[in-house]
Amino acid sequence: MTDLGTRFVRWTWCRAVLHRGWWLVTSVYLVVDARLSASQLVLIGVAQGIVALVCEVPAGVVADALSRKWSLVVSHLLMGTAMLATGLVTTFGPLLLTQMLWGLSWTFASGADVAWISDELDDPDRVPTVLLRAERAQLTGTVVGLLGIGALAWLTRRDTAIVLAGAAMLLLGGYVATAFRETRFVARRKRILARGISLVRGSRVLLVILAATFVVNGLAGSVGRLYQLRLVDVGLSVDPVLWFTGLGVVTSLAGAAALRLVQPHIEGAHTARRGYAVACLVAGVGVGWLAVAPEEVGGSAAIVLAAGAFPLARGFGVIWVNAHTHGAVRATVHSLFAQADYAGAVVCGLALAAVSDLFLSLVTSGALLVAMGLLVAGGTFGGPKASATRIH
To answer: Which regions span the lipid bilayer (predicted)?
Structure first.
């Protein structure tokens, strides 16, 4: 019988293959086949963000109150439907609705997945290792998805690849429904949100991570939109789609290799904090380097450094938060941090847009990331269970 942790990691890998590959093809489909304008593309992103921001915490409360496993199943049903439907329409209105549904689907999975595996393993010392393996699976699955579903779209049609990826996501939801057990979950329907907020407010560690999540994750999405523009500015001489697909593959593999090196030490009390701090510092150096890189090779190396460090920071952040919460409100607490992620993306995106100067935007972002890394590295925090026992 397959080990529960291994089953979780394999599911994470499959989901990454499907949704990462689907988005690569969809991002081209929206421009080339649907012929959406720049303003329409921006509106879709805004609508997705609003749906996620509004529904994230309620979905986390549902997972804690009713079921983590069935929250994941609902996520798959919504996600697969949104993915499949995207390939069936080419006008702005229906596409806006499919992408909003896509954003909603993630709120049911965010936090519920970590909460489910933490409960079912019932082994605090083993959970960080499984979560780190899952982060590696996300990265290697991204590579397979980019290459596999991208190739499928090239061999057939973009809409065909999109529909097939959506159908496969629905089938993966069926796998969760039948193969994931839920034997240790205890439903709690009273004051879940209030208890989750109280836990975060009462923990210095969680407040620091919350602030770092707002800044670091917010900058990750905002700065990521500037990579292509900066390389074009320094004189990119290769087809941008081909070049950035290659960078995506290299970045994902480098991130997976880094996580593999860290994995034997992740059970240490302070490993997640130190890993988070190093990832922030590396991302800051990469973004700063990109601002001054004089040519495409140096700029690409800076992008690999920054884009590779951001997912590591996110992964270490999840593990760090998970160590400082407890089963009763675990999904809700993770959803609160996901909401900080979305809010940070909105605020940081608006701030960088207001700056308008590309060089200043990158330098400022790099400095903020380094500052957050130093803040986390210089902090004196308690052990991983210091705040998890404050509320019962």
So the answer is: 38-63, 70-89, 137-155, 161-180, 201-221, 241-262, 274-292, 298-321, 333-353, 359-382
In a domain, 387, yes or no: no
* Beta carbons of 344 and 245 less than 8 angstroms apart: no
Residues 328-343 pLDDT 10s: 788 889 889 988 888 8
pLDDT of residue 268: 60
In the chain, what is the straight-line distance between the N-terminal and C-terminal CA atoms, in Å?
34
**Domain final residue, candidates 126, 147, 179:** 179
Please indicate, yes or no, whether residues 277 and 342 belong to a single structural domain of this protein.
yes
Report the chain's mean pLDDT, rounded to a whole number.
Answer: 87
Spatial separation of the C-alpha atoms in residues 68 and 73, rounded to whole Å: 9
- Same domain? For 127 and 196 the reply is no
Say what the pLDDT of residue 272 is. Answer: 85
Alpha carbon of 222 to those of 155, 161, 216, 343, 350: distances in Å?
33, 28, 10, 12, 9
**Which residues neighbour 229 within 8 Å (Cβ) at sequence distance 6 or greater?**
358
**Structural contact between residues 318 and 302, judged by C-beta atoms closer than 8 angstroms:** no
User: Model-level pTM?
Assistant: 0.80
Distance CA 388, CA 392 (A): 9
Structure-token pair, residue 174: 């069926």
* Pair 276, 317: CB distance under 8 Å: yes
Give me the residues of the chain with pLDDT under 50, please: 382-392
In contact, 110 and 224? CB cutoff 8 Å: no
Domain count, the chain: 2
Judge if 70 and 150 occupy the same domain: yes
Give CA–CA dist 264/232, Å, rounded: 40
User: Among the residues of 66-191, which ranges form H helices?
Assistant: 68-86, 92-109, 112-121, 127-155, 158-179
Q: Give the type of residue at 242.
A: L
Residues 98 and 125 in one domain: yes
Domain boundary (116, 150, 179) is at: 179
